[in-house]
Amino acid sequence: MSTIQELNDALDGQLLSGKPARADATAARVDQSLGPIAIDSRRTAPGDVFWALPGTKHDGNAFVEDAFQSGATVAVVDREVAVPKGCWAVKVADTAEALHRWATWKRRQFTGTVVGVTGSVGKTTTRQMIHTVLGARLAGTASPRNLNNHVGVPISMHNMSSSDDYAVLELGASRQGENEERSGGGESGEGGGRETVRDKRQHS
Predict the structure, then answer these.
(1) Orientation angle between helical segments 95-109 and 4-11, nearest 10 degrees
(2) In the predicted model, is pLDDT for residue 64 greater than 90?
(3) Which residues share a beta bridge with 15?
(4) Does residue 186 sit within a domain?
(5) Angle, vertex CA 42, rays to CA 7 and CA 125, nearest 5
(6) Which of 34, 71, 79 is nearest to 52 (CA)?
(7) Does 203 reside within a domain?
């Protein structure tokens, strides 16, 4: 997995750290691997990266403290926040834009094959079946649950590892060309490829 330092560099962010709790303690190292991305402080687990996204009613930055209390090691924010001892924050201009920027960086680094599953119905089942078949012989990852929108796809791409042979991404779309943007605009890492599986019941 990627590291705290790579996250900050890819986002061109400002890295903020909290001091260790004790003189002999150490903060999470910048070369420490990143955990999963969480966008809900109530569902944040120890080691997670809390991404403070703007919402229609609430601003994720307001829940950074709660996320850290739940065990988040890193938070991506777009305003000044208090960073607990032993933790990090990456301050960017816009957290929503930064999430897509991070997904693009992950896609460019990935050298395996990306399988995009699209369609009006059956995407989740198809994604699970492909992952099961490929996973029998190869190492890879797939979208957790049905994370297939403008937030879910970047979160799924965050889970892609340099050791993976493939990644199966579920892609939903609300406008033409959206899936191309979410899958990295057709770009692939060195030696990587891309395949798209469409539900045959979807009308062209």
Answers:
(1) 110
(2) yes
(3) 90
(4) yes
(5) 75
(6) 79
(7) no
β-strands 88-91, 14-17: how paired?
antiparallel
What three-state secondary structure class fits 88? strand
pLDDT 10s digits, 83-116? 999 999 999 999 999 999 999 999 999 999 999 9
* Mean model confidence pLDDT for the chain: 85
pLDDT at 180: 56
Considering 37, 65, 93, which residue would you say is the last residue of a domain? 93
CA atoms within 13 A on the CB side of 116: 25
Tell me the two tokens of residue 69.
Answer: 């209390």
Domain boundary among 63, 93, 123: 93
The percent helix, strand, coil of the chain (3-state, each to 5) is 30, 20, 50
Collapsing DSSP to helix, strand or coil, 132 comes out as helix
Contact in structure between 92 and 105 (CB atoms under 8 Å):
no
Owning domain of residue 165:
100-198
Q: What is the secondary structure of 6-69 as a DSSP string? A: HHHHHHT-EEEEPPPSSTT--PPPTTSBP--EES-GGG--TT-EEE--B-SS-BGGGGHHHHHH
For the whole model, what pTM was predicted?
Answer: 0.82
pLDDT digits (tens, 9 = 90+) for 150-203: 999 999 999 999 999 999 999 986 555 555 554 554 454 444 555 554 443 444
Whole-number pLDDT of residue 181: 56
Determine the longest span between alpha carbons in the chain, in angstroms. Answer: 64
